[in-house]
Every structure is written in C-alpha cells, then in structure tokens.
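Chain entry —
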Amino acid sequence: MEKTLLKYLICPFCAEGLQVDKVINVKDTRIIDGILRCPCHRYPIISGILCLQGDEISEKALRLLDRKKTHAALYLMLEGRMMKKVISLTKRLHLAPRFWKIISFWNWKYWTSYLRYRFSAPNFICSLSLMPLIKEAGGYMLDVCAGVGHFAFMATKHIPATKIVCVERRFTSLYLAQEFFAPHAAGYIDWDASQMLPFVDGFFNSVVCLDSFHYIDTKYLFSKEMMRVLNKDGILLIPHIHNSSLPDVLPGAPLSLSHYQKLFGDLEIRMISEERMLKDLLSEHVVELSSANDEPVSLPEAVSLAIDNAGNFTLAASKSDKYFKRYSTEMLFASSPVNLVVNPIYKVKKCRDGIRLKLKFPCRLYRAEFPLIERYFEKKLFISNDDLKSEEKRMMWQKRFILVDVPLRFMNRQAVL
C-alpha cells in the first residue's frame, strides 16, 4: 500500500482517519506488512493488503504481526487449504507460477473458468470501452468489487497504476490481483462494499463497479457511498447491471431500470445496453454516451435498449455533462502489447502455414451466461503466419479481441509475440 494513500483513508466504523501503528516491512514508498489504527480498531496490512474486516481472523492476524510472523499471517488470511499450501510453497521456493495454473487450486470450479476466460466475456469487453472516460477523469480510480484485478490491469494501460485503488471482500482475490494483474496499484483493501466505504468524501475522480452491483444487498447505501467518495467532477461507471424484468442465468438481486435511476437521481445518467456497446466497439470503435439532442437518455429508450440484450446494461452517472459524448476507442490499442496471446476462448492448433482456432467454451454454464460470445466470435478461424508477422493484421485481430494483451504471468501458451 502506498504511504500517500493513508491520508485519504478512514475507519468504516468510526469514520476517523487511520494512523500508522507499526511498520514491519516496507519497499520504497509502500508498506508491505504493518498495522494501522484508529480510535476504535487496529487493522493489519499483510503482503500490501489492508484488511478492514475487524473479524476474528483479522484479530488473529494482528497477534501474528505483533510477533512479526508475516508469513503465518498471510497463510491465515488466504482461502482454501490447497490455495494456502500452493502459495506458501511458491513463496518459500521463490517460484513464479502462472495465474492459469494457480487459480485451479481455488474451491469453486465455475469461478475458476470465469476468471480464466474473463478476456472473452462480453461484460468485460464492454467495460473496456469506458477507458476513455476514466482517462479523461484523471486522478484516482476506485475499482470496487475488483475481483482478481482484470479491469485494474487494463486500466494501468491508460492511467498510472499508482492512481488505482482496488476494494474487494476476498483477501485471496486481492492477493492474486497484486501478484498477477496490477502489482503497482496504490492500494488493495479487503472490505465488503455493502457497508460504508473507507475513504474521505470526494476523493476519487472515477468509481467503477463491474458485474457486481446486482449482487449487493444494500444497494441504497452502496449507491450513496459511491456518490459520496466521487469527486464533484468525477464519473461513476457501473458496467453490466442485471434487469429484474428479464431473466438471467446468475441474476443476483437485480432491480428495474427505473429503480436504478432513482438510486442515482442526484446525478445525470446514461443507461446503455450491452449489445449496443458491443456493436459500437467492435464495428465502429466508439462508445456513445450522448443522445441525438445532447439530452440525457430517457427511460423508455433505456428500457428498449436493455430489452435488446436480455437485461444487461451499463450505467454511467456524473454531475458534469462533459463525459456524455461520443468517444473513440482507438486508444485501447494505441500502446504496444506486452504479452499478446490468442484469446483463451479459442483452442489453438498450429500448422505449417499458421494457426487454426476453434471456439471452445470451458463449460455449459459459461456458455449460458455469455451467449453473445457466439455472436461476435467466429466459431472457426485461420490466421496465417504472414498475418501474425504483420503489425496491421495483428491490430485487426486485436480490435476483434481474437488476440488479447494479458499479464506476463497469465498463461504459458498461445503467445503470439
């Protein structure tokens, strides 16, 4: 955790600022292991992750940190017997396993598939088209319900990693985010977003909650908290929200579109269907957040757009109207890729003249949750060796998300560059 972030943090129980109680390990400007305190609690920082849960496990971790047993504290916080053993072993032997391998030791099989194949999911691809807004907002970005850091990884290509803060209720997810996806983010905070957010008012220029809002029970509190920590000129982005009026494979507890609008009634709002965003991104390389007459999108239009895509849509909200316009998404592909691979949704077969790709879903549930994959990914493809060598051709495949830039330690196969 960056030391500069401390002055913006508050205790979610007493709303007082957090102070350094003890520092055990530091690296440059980052606290790796230590303890923070406020008038009512002490909170552990373990492997760079601040734990605010205040539960029995955190109390045990504090006692271990008081004795400087940092490895034992990390082992305690990780989920799953096999995950604990594997991570402990790799740290002790100084190994560098791939994310693709280590995620297989987590408990829920579908969660493993969901994280491995995230770069093919329509909701994730849609969310990337919002990067121009995040770049325009500048300043700090809050990635709340951050998962293992896929979105944070993509954001680091457009804003400094030291301006990104990830909040997630699972310590293990944050550990994986730091290890594989966004190692230089300003902060990783283990906290449940259904309660008060641990930040001062108006701190963030952008707040993002991807594919999670419909799973939060305290939606009213969560919406108020997101607006509270958002700068008056900032942008609030909630990609992939489920609509209660329409069916979904994993629905959570969704609301109707009119209820979502009421939650953020203090802000100007855009609601755009996921299918429309995909079409604009893949066909025209734009994201459209304006209406024909430069007025907010009306509820009837938002409803019709959402119905087109079985209820999944993106909500963008701000007090400033500067964000509600048409953006080019060319910036998504402006930087040179670090680790360009064939999208893992494809099975790759190498041949003398190039590579043959075949669309292959990891399981039936993934296929049922993301039916749009079959609409924008061809079932079979051939990419010649000449195409792979051509920068122009590779860019074409990137814009179709057939080739994707992933973290260096994401997987060890299907690399193109």
